[in-house]
Amino acid sequence: MTSILLVDDHDDIRDVVTRHLQKHGFTVATATNGVEAVLAVAQSAPSLILMDINMPELDGIEATMQIRSTDPEVRIPVIALTAYALPDDEARAMAAGCDAFHPKPIDFDRLREQIRTLIS
């Protein structure tokens, strides 16, 4: 079963996305900020990470860079989720090591397609 780490500082977004992904057969763990995300990945590597970009304590860009730097041999796909959907924001996310970019509000059909593509 595909395990997804969903990282977002908003309770309502975590709840909606978690329910949707579970309904489609994914196992979902959550983190509320980048610090929790880095720790969660170190403890149990998920199949894929959905990473909000704008969060307190440690943002998604820095968290992705830290995850990428811990073990270059392990490449967990990361999809950046953000309300900031300008071209510069996407370029920043990709430069940090994200594999895909998904603007909010979330298009769940497109998100599931991105997940399937990255984990296949």
UniProtKB/TrEMBL annotation:
<keyword id="KW-0597">Phosphoprotein</keyword>
<dbReference type="GO" id="GO:0000160">
    <property type="term" value="P:phosphorelay signal transduction system"/>
</dbReference>
<feature type="modified residue" description="4-aspartylphosphate">
    <location>
        <position position="52"/>
    </location>
</feature>
<dbReference type="InterPro" id="IPR001789">
    <property type="entry name" value="Sig_transdc_resp-reg_receiver"/>
</dbReference>
<dbReference type="Pfam" id="PF00072">
    <property type="entry name" value="Response_reg"/>
</dbReference>
<dbReference type="InterPro" id="IPR011006">
    <property type="entry name" value="CheY-like_superfamily"/>
</dbReference>
<feature type="domain" description="Response regulatory">
    <location>
        <begin position="3"/>
        <end position="119"/>
    </location>
</feature>
<keyword id="KW-0902">Two-component regulatory system</keyword>
<protein>
    <submittedName>
        <fullName>Polar-differentiation response regulator DivK</fullName>
    </submittedName>
</protein>
